[in-house]
Each structure stands twice: as structure tokens, then as C-alpha cells.
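[Automated response] Your request has been received and processed.

Submitted sequence:
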Amino acid sequence: MKWIKRAVPIALCVALLLSQPVSAASLITETESGMTAAESMALETPPEFDDALPVAATASSLEIGGKSAILMDITSGTVLYEKNVHEKLPIASVTKVMTLLLVMEALDTGRISLDDAVTCSSEAASMGGSQIWLEPGEIMSVHDLIKAAAVVSANDACAALAEHIDGSIESFVEHMNARAAELGMNDTLFLDCSGLNDEAHSSAYDVALMSCELMKHPLIKQYTTIWMDSLRDGQSQLVNTNKLIRFYKGATGLKTGTTSTAGHNLSATAERDGLSLVAVILGCSTTDERFGGARKMLDYGFAHYSLYTPQIDAAQLKPITVLRGVETKVATYAEMPKPMLMKKGDEKRVTCTVELASDLEAPVELGQIVGKVRLMRDGEELAAYPVYAKTAIERLGFGECFKRLFSALCG
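Generated structure:
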């Protein structure tokens, strides 16, 4: 029975290869992953992705390999698990997370567009390692270069993008380090845009920071979730060797990286029920160790945490008395709180109370803060949100005061 399971994906792989003429160089996979394209395409569900595997009950009981690792909530930056998170290590092609971040930001600001035609330079074509075999003078769109960088970790594509954005690879690397400093990546030094230079370094914490920043760009998921695709009008087949994309529920990316010095590294992102997590593991001795470790961290996060959206009781947002105003009361409102990361079950212990000013002296401005909403759990304040005046109320003038007094006396 087992041979049948193996035969089916292999047969599909062969069928794909035979469906059109494919040269030896046209089936592209990330060479540094340690797997051939055929092996990647014929994968059965690996043991490290078995849904029946137990989930750690606590962060302290997680057994994660590698030299360092971290699990972080992407939205809040909350660390859910950590192991030697600031140890400076070479990260190989995980470096490309920063390269892709700068590409996304250049797209956002309009410096480049997906349709831009990029001409490959001799330097970009000479990168070596994982590549799509760009030729000097070959023209490829930014869209296709991003696809090549994200799916098969193409060093030549990264170099071409770097030159297109900043004029040269050297200027782009300066840009990378400046952006890292802005993000608070204090353990990081970039020396190239691809991760080929093992004298560069970063840390699990810093990789998590730049991964969170990259995942703020929804467009990147269109590339990092690709399992198979093609370039050059179908002449070059791309196969993603990030097993998470194929086998892990909710996987959204992100980047593998391997060299003999750095070992096997991974920044893995996934989303379930609105909760987005990143698991980073560095310095593993095998590729199974990195994928297994990332899966364990992600499983732990999704099993024990969720997003809780506080609910404000509208009945508590009562009008407030206004003294010496043209109106005697002002309505109030509060903006809906954003979802909060919380351990599953803890939301039952959260209380939401509204504190309002006893009265206000006119004039009252539109949007004036007149109170706050407090979220408490077991006596600890989790968050506080302002309550605002819904309308503006002017102060009574002398004439209006006299008119009201006269009306009251004549009653």
C-alpha cells in the first residue's frame, strides 16, 4: 500500500515534466535546501507535519532544536517562546526577508512597479548559488523577479532587484542595514542582499522583527504561498522547497536558508482564525530539524493563544451633564478596541468598565476626551481606551442666560 502512495506523486511529477519540453536547466528549485526538484514534487506528508503529534502544554516544555529559536505574534510583537534569541548567527538566505521587505516598500512608495522591466547586469548574473540563470542583458519584470526570489531564493533575481531599486548592490546593502537599524535589529549586519556571505549575522529575534514587518504587506503572500509556478512563458518551472507551504495548515511563508556554515535556517509564518505567528529557528543540523521545530512552535501558539475582541457595553456610554452650556447633556462614544492576543480561556476573566466624568464645563469640543474604557483581568489593567464627546456644545452667552432666567420666572 505504501508503494502506491509513493507512486502517485512521482507519477504526477513525471506527467508534469512530460507535458511540455523541459530542458535540464528549466526545472528550478532552491538548491540550498538540500532537496532536488523531483524529490520536492514527490513529497509525501513528512512525519514532522503529522497532525496526530502531541502539542506542548507549556512553552517551557517545548523541545526545539537548532542554536536559537523564537515564536512571536506578528500583530503585537509579543514573544511566546524564546531560546537564545539574541545570539548572533549567519542566517544564509533568510537574509532575503529584508531584501523582499525593501522591495515591498519601494512598491508602496511608487519608486518601482510590478510591471517595470529590469535588465540583468553582468554582476547580477554572476551571483551563483540558488538562481534562475539570468543572462546578462536578459529582461524580466519586477513581478517575476520577486516570484523567483520568494519561491526559489534566486540570488541573481535579488541582485537585479537591488540594482533596480538603489542603483547598485552596495547601495542596497546600505539601505538594508539602515532599515534594520530603524526596526531595532541590534544583532544584525548585512553584507549582501542574498545571504551568500556567512560573515554577515543576525539573530532569531531580529529575523522575527523583519519577518513581522514584511508580513504587514499583504502583497508578499501572493508570492510566499506559491508551491509551483513558472517563468519565461512556462519554459522555467519553479518548485518551492519550503515544505510548510504544502503541508502546514495556514502557512503564509516565509523563507528558508542553508549553507554549510549557517546550517539549516527558517523563518516560518502562518495564520489561523485571524491569529498570525512567526516561528524562527536558526543553526539546525538538518532540514527536518528546522521544519519540525517551526511546526512545534506554531502548533503551540495556535493551540494556546487566540485573538480576543473586547466588547464595550453601549449602555455604559451614558450622556454627561454639561454645566453652563447651550445643551445640558452631551452624548459619548468610544472606538471599538482592536483584537488582543490572549491565552485561550483568559478572555473569560476580562472585565470591561466605562469611567466617565461626573459633569463637564462648557464649552465642550467635538471629540473631547471625557472618560475611558478599562479592560481588567484579575485586577491588572490590560488596556485603556478613551471615551469621546459625540458633539460640540457651546457655552451659554449672557443673552441666552437672561432669556432662560426670564422664561423660568414667568414659567
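Summary generated for your ticket: Residues 1-25 have pLDDT under 50 and may be disordered. The chain is about 30% helix and 25% strand.
If you did not submit this request, please reply to this message.
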